[in-house]
Amino acid sequence: FPVRDRDFRTAAWPGTGGIIAQCVSVAKTPQGVAIRDTKDVTNKTLYFTPAEWNAFSQGMKAGEFDCD
Questions:
Q1: Closest C-alpha to 9, from 29, 19, 17, 1
Q2: DSSP helix/strand/coil, 7
Q3: Pick from 25, 30, 27, 24: which is nearest to 50 by CA?
Q4: Phi and psi dihedrals of 17, rounded to 5?
Q5: How crowded is residue 23: how many other Cβ atoms within 10 Å of its Cβ?
Q6: Residue pair 47/32 in contact by the 8 Å Cβ criterion
Q7: Cβ–Cβ contacts within 10 Å for residue 36, how many?
Q8: Which conformational region is residue 25 in: left (phi greater than 0), alpha (psi within -120 to 50 degrees), or beta?
Q9: pLDDT by residue (tens digit) across 30-50?
Q10: Which pLDDT score, from 0 to 100, does residue 46 have?
Q11: For the whole model, what pTM was predicted?
Q12: Which DSSP string corresponds to 24-61?
């Protein structure tokens, strides 16, 4: 699905030592969600359907991806 550069928003969260990490841009559209690397936008953009994104979001909230 088409996504324009202006549709992307940079995700930010506190990293190690309170530093804000800004490495992922996300664009939400009715067709789904697109994600790309903010440091190299020429890399491949990943696309997810709304159902895939919902499953991923629920997994994140449930702690399924913790690296501890």
A1: 29
A2: helix
A3: 30
A4: 70, 15
A5: 13
A6: yes
A7: 20
A8: beta
A9: 899 999 988 887 888 999 999
A10: 92
A11: 0.69
A12: EEEEEETTEEEEEESS-TTSPPEEE-HHHHHHHHHHHH
